[in-house]
Amino acid sequence: MICKPANNPTTPNEVWLLLDSFTFGGIETHVIELARGIADFNVPVKVVLLSQFSTPSAIVAKLEQASIAFHYLADLTRPKNLASQPNVTKAPSNHSIAQQCWQLRRAIKKHQPMAIHAHGYKASIISKLAVKTVPGLTQQITTYHAGEVPSGKVRLYDALDRYSSPLSKHSLCVSPQIQARLPVKSHCLNNFVGMQSAIKSQGKQLAFVGRLSHEKGPDSFLDLAMLHPEHSFYVYGDGPMQEELAQRALHNVHLLGFSNDMHQCWQNIGLLIITSRFEGLPMTALEAMSRGIPVLALNVGALEKLIDQASNGWVVDDITALSQCLQQWFEMTTPEKEHMANNAINTIEQHYSTQAVVPKILSLYQS
Fold it and tell me: Which GO biological-process labels does this protein carry (predicted)?
């Protein structure tokens, strides 16, 4: 089944997952997992995209592949006979925050969803303003994902998002560090992944998976590779540091670029290495561990909560310690690695799976 932009009006008690998205990253992965999880509990859900670009957002193909209903915000305010015509060419809709807030207010009045759950600062700010200015029972919830303190213009939006958190019915955070930056009481909930499609990996690669940007620390991953020239290291992802990394031209580092099908790539990976400077609780770590791939990581965000030292991975403070733990991995026997892989899977099943976390989120929608 291929899921086209949803044609039907909002059904009773529907949840909208709201975000502004062009590239594909951790927030997009989280939203897809959340939509799947909500649907698993028979609650109506759709993803609402704030903007429609001339080039489709990367998440669109993923939503279609997963048969998840989605709408562009502008379509939710169009007359039904126009919004439901799939062959009508619609102009890109990338409006200002004020315009999108006005559109969302109209959409709430028209469809009256049970809850709007925002992800990312723009969706969060717009939905808080819209819900507060529309009488009704729609709840507004924001999940705060970003562990880094942004710079430039985004720093202002980040501050506005955090200090407007009292407008939300509930504020959710994916790590204690993010929670500490909010001025209101909030809920620290684990990120999560579905286990249904997670096939145990038999791969051997030492891999970095993520955006090639400063906060993710791909340069530190290359520094680690330099300490082990006899082993090959693999980088999955693209981003602003791609050219810089390519110029270093390490003989044992393979830059594989962005993949539209990480399900296949995970089957090649034996150990995920996270060298981030800032994190919340990275979805890549959960995706890896759900497939029996242990994680070796720098101690950022909530990773120390996820990783049980030398049981399902390692969490350390610097590159030297990363190198030492990596050497332990090289020296482990196959049964020892298999035991660590099983521990990783058990950790996700018990604490970071859809079945473990989504009921808590649903209870907040209804409270």
Answer: carbohydrate derivative metabolic process
Could you tell me whether strands 187-188 and 253-257 are parallel, antiparallel, or unpaired per DSSP bridges?
unpaired
DSSP secondary structure code for residue 235 in this structure: E
* Structure tokens given for 96: 């200002």
Instruction: Count the Cβ atoms, other than its own, within 10 Å of residue 133.
Output: 12
- Name the strand (E) or helix (H) holding 114: none
- Kindly list the distances between the CA atom of residue 314 and the CA atoms of 28, 167, 178, 338, in Å, as whole numbers in the listed order: 26, 39, 22, 15
> Around Cβ 334, how many Cβ atoms within 10 Å?
7
> Could you say which architecture CATH assigns to the domain 15-192+355-365?
3-Layer(aba) Sandwich (3.40)
Query: How would you write the pLDDT of the chain (367 residues) with one tens digit per residue?
Result: 344 455 555 566 899 999 999 999 889 999 999 999 999 999 999 999 999 999 999 999 999 999 999 999 999 988 765 555 543 445 566 678 899 999 999 999 999 999 999 999 999 999 999 999 998 889 999 999 987 778 888 899 999 999 999 999 999 999 999 999 999 999 999 999 999 889 999 999 999 999 999 999 999 999 999 999 999 999 999 999 999 999 998 999 999 999 988 989 999 999 999 999 999 899 999 999 999 999 999 999 999 999 999 999 999 999 999 999 999 999 999 999 999 999 999 999 999 999 999 999 999 999 8
User: 337: how many CB neighbours lie within 10 A of its CB?
Assistant: 16
Whether the CB-CB separation of 16 and 365 falls below 8 Å is answered with no
Cα(301)–Cα(129) distance, integer angstroms: 29
Residues 262/242, Cβ–Cβ less than 8 Å: no
Equal CATH topology for 15-192+355-365 and 205-351: yes
The edge-to-edge listing of strands for the beta sheet with 139-144 is 70-72, 45-49, 15-19, 115-119, 139-144, 170-173, 187-188
Q: Is 132 helix (H, G, I), strand (E, B) or coil?
A: helix
Handedness of CA 144, 157, 5, 210 (dihedral sign): negative
Check: CB of residue 303 under 8 Å from CB of residue 249.
no
Count other C-beta atoms under 10 Å from residue 183's C-beta.
11
Q: Which two tokens stand for residue 301?
A: 């965000």
pTM score of the predicted model: 0.85
What topology is assigned to 205-351 in CATH? Answer: Rossmann fold (3.40.50)
